[in-house]
Amino acid sequence: SSNITNAAAAISWTTDEASDSQVEYGLSTSYTNSTTLNISMVTSHSAGLSGLTGSTTYHYRVRSKDAALNQGASGDHTFTTSAAPDITAPVITGVGSSNITNAAAAISWTTDEASDSQVEYGTSLSYGNSTALNASMVTSHSAGLSGLAASTLYYYRVRSKDAALNTGTSGDYTFTTSAAPDNTAPVITGVGSSNINNAAATISWTTNEASNSQVEYGLSASYGNSTALNAAMVTSHSAGLAGLTGSTTYHYRVRSRDATLNLGTSGDYTFTTSATPDTTPPVFTSVGSSLITYYSASIDWTTNEASNSQVEYGLTTSYGALTALNADMVTSHSAALAGLAAGTLYHYRVRSRDAALNQGASGDYTFTTYTIPTNTPPTIGVDSPWSGATLSGTVGVTATAWDDAGVAKVDFIMGGTTYSDNAAPYSHQLNTLRSANGWRQLTVRAYDINSNTAETVLDLRVQNQDRTDTIVTSTGGAILSSIADIIVPPMSLAAPITITVVDEAMDDDALLDERRARASLQDITPIALGVRLLPDGYIPAGPISIKLPLNHSIKVAATMEEIIGLYSWNDTLNTWQLLTSTYSAADDSMNAQTAAFSVYRLFSRVPLVLTPAVGEVYVFPNPAKGEAKPVFHIETDSADKVEIRIHDFTGRQIHTKTITAGPALVNRNNKLTYAYEYEWEAGNAASGAYFYVVIVSKGGGKTLRKGKFAVIR
After folding, report:
1. Is the pTM higher than 0.70?
2. Helix (H) or strand (E) holding 561
3. How far, in Å, CA of 156 to CA of 161, rounded?
């Protein structure tokens, strides 16, 4: 067989003699079909079969008959026709779109036979665009479309061509691309504040698209606070702020984020909260009475805020009378009371109402109107001291005064200086150190409210042992006291005068504190307490010399005058004034001249590091005989503390003493110096030798001195 197709085949054979030609064929060896007999007598035979079925196996045999009618037949043979030609286009099903975005989409479909893939698409049924042909022969097809326009209706159809070049085309389909991604933040407008009070405010704004709401706020453009995020997607926004402070300017900005998370933020805005509602009544101070007469008085007070004025008054705390309301809003108040009774005790309280209508009332106060004047003087008596008493140091003076109209005050007068006491019990602390030793008069004078007076005079003897009182005349002289040396040149005094030298410690603590504070401001360092030269403020006709000893620990490389100065206190200017000072190495003292009596003290003009330098340390009398008491003498400047330990001859400690007060300015063995002195009450001490240890402490450092002394009973 040859030339086999899907519908035909050629059968050929040869014979050994000329004969005719015929072929029997069929789907089995029964054949059932035969070609037309070809009577041509040949030896090379050929017959064509037609009308066959494609892809089918056929059985056949050939037959030839010679001229003598002898017929020969071949055995059974087969052949298979080829497939029939494919002229059917692929059948397309399952067309659809997926993965649609704003710029792309995927198109998929299936075919009943392997075929290629292509999509036609466009914004109308004319399409106008197509994907690249995908030549892969498949039955499940997919093609991607790109470069599409957002939010656009697209038309499309699919095409597939099989291996026999039969092309199938789908019907028309559509899809719509999604909107383009939102990359634009909401546009914020209409930002404003409203409903502002002392503690809250409302912030509102609008956006051009639905978005959430939040407000940042604070006392500056750094904000620091924010409202809770309101996730509702709206275009009209509002947020409340709470917990604010009254009368305060707040900064704020608003924030809104849309559905695609684009955040819009406004610029900075401000608002100011209103004042906190005033619910506090006025606070009263300085309530008092003044301008009291026999029949009237003025009541005065102040308030911490502007308010009106009114006074309740009467003979008891029930009051009963009321001044006319003064509606003026002031902080300094005054109200006049008239028509009062003379010599009568009145109760009163003040009332004030502020602008917020908060009313306050003071506590109860009293005043007494003046008694109609009489000419009867008060009575006065001195309780202590008695006339003729001997006084020293500071002494308390007490007096009793009475008057039918009332005592206004009692004056204590001594040496031209007056001290007043305006309320009973009447008393005064008399500092006798301010007066020279000798007989002095103290006048105690009482005043009643009608200016009638009565007085009593005491003769008192002033006797202070720790001072020097020397009468100096125009011939001059020298005062060698225990605390300072004073040299009065001839003709320095216009008339004889008693000059007194006392320790500065005689002054009031307030004065001492003031001088210490001023020295600190002047950046000068005191070496020790100074001395006072009396009479205070006296101005001699010529300069007077003053000598003060130096402190043992002052050791400097420069000249003493560059470091140490002798200063005087100026009561008028309230300051220390440097005198022209000269250092004497012979007696380790600083010397200067003064033109007025005052307080004098040594100061360092540069910061000093004071160490516990110690001069002479000894015990006197040594030995201590009979009833004599051993006195420890320790020369040093002001220390934090001085400790004295006494041991018997066995080494056992039998006594200790710690001193924390400052040293005294003493003159021992014709030497003026600062020293600590301690007298040991050794009444029970047996005769024998004793040892002592002295420890001087200052600023964390210590200096130790040892010695011995004897007691003879």
Report:
1. no
2. helix 560-563
3. 17
